[in-house]
């Protein structure tokens, strides 16, 4: 997967959609407006660029003050990020919040998946049941799920990983792939009898990891088994 190329495409799609969106429209699964979303994602882009340029962690706010219209802010922020990534040495060390990857390459992958999830958020303002972005291929979505476990679970404290109370299997319907999560949030090679299963396309599973698609059509994301296991997975303060 060429994360830089995929990021350029997903961020361009966000820019195109944002240009025609109502800045005051609410999002489906996040308590923000479209304007808030543009401020947040543009701010994340600029923060990531500073992590690369300065090499250390700069201060960050979730929703920064907009210094221009949402589309202008986002367009400028996208240019800052892509220009920084284009000229950076992907092997050079810099600040990341991954325990296993301290290279600038980390930010290619992280900003790709940040953008894919927020592209769905943007489209949810017009349609709470919007499908997963077509811009995210099965390969990209599967890597997004892997990244969730690599980075957000792998770098989290024990307190942020409540015991699930059983084994959870995430089953992709469009790929010969599943993820089996033990009660302690450790990925297992397999488990014949999970306590609960979430079944969906890879793209919908990626969004489900971030508690999106709550208004998905019946059957898009299927939950079976112990509801408590699934609820604890969704409520874990990892996101």
UniProtKB/TrEMBL annotation:
GO terms for MF: metal ion binding
InterPro entries the UniProt entry points to: DinB/YfiT-like, Maleyloyr_isom, MDMPI_C-term_domain, MDMPI_metal-binding
Domain Mycothiol-dependent maleylpyruvate isomerase metal-binding: 5-123
Origin: domain of life: Bacteria
An example Gene Ontology CC term for this record: plasma membrane
Pfam family, one: MDMPI_C
Residues annotated as domain MDMPI C-terminal: 139-232
Protein name: Maleylpyruvate isomerase
Protein's organism: Marisediminicola antarctica
């Amino acid at each position: 997967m060429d994360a830089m190329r995929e990021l350029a495409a997903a961020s361009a799609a966000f820019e195109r959609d944002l240009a025609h969106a109502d800045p005051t429209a609410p999002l489906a699964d996040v308590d923000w407006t479209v304007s808030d979303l543009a401020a947040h994602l543009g701010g994340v882009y600029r923060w990531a660029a500073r992590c690369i340029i300065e090499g250390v962690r700069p201060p960050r706010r979730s929703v920064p003050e907009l210094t221009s219209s949402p589309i202008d802010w986002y367009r400028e922020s996208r240019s800052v990020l892509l220009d920084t990534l284009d000229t950076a040495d992907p092997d050079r060390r810099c600040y990341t919040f991954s325990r296993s990857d301290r290279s600038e390459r980390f930010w290619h992958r992280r900003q790709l998946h940040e953008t894919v999830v927020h592209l769905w958020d943007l489209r949810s303002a017009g349609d709470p049941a919007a499908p997963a972005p077509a811009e995210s291929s099965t390969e990209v979505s599967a890597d997004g799920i892997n990244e969730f476990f690599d980075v957000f679970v792998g770098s989290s404290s024990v307190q942020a990983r409540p015991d699930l109370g059983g084994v959870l299997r995430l089953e992709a319907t469009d790929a010969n792939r599943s993820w089996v999560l033990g009660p302690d949030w450790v990925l297992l090679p397999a488990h014949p009898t999970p306590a609960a299963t979430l079944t969906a396309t890879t793209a919908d599973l990626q969004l489900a990891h971030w508690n999106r698609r709550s208004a998905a059509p019946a059957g898009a994301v299927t939950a079976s088994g112990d509801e408590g296991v699934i609820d604890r997975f969704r409520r874990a303060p990892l996101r």
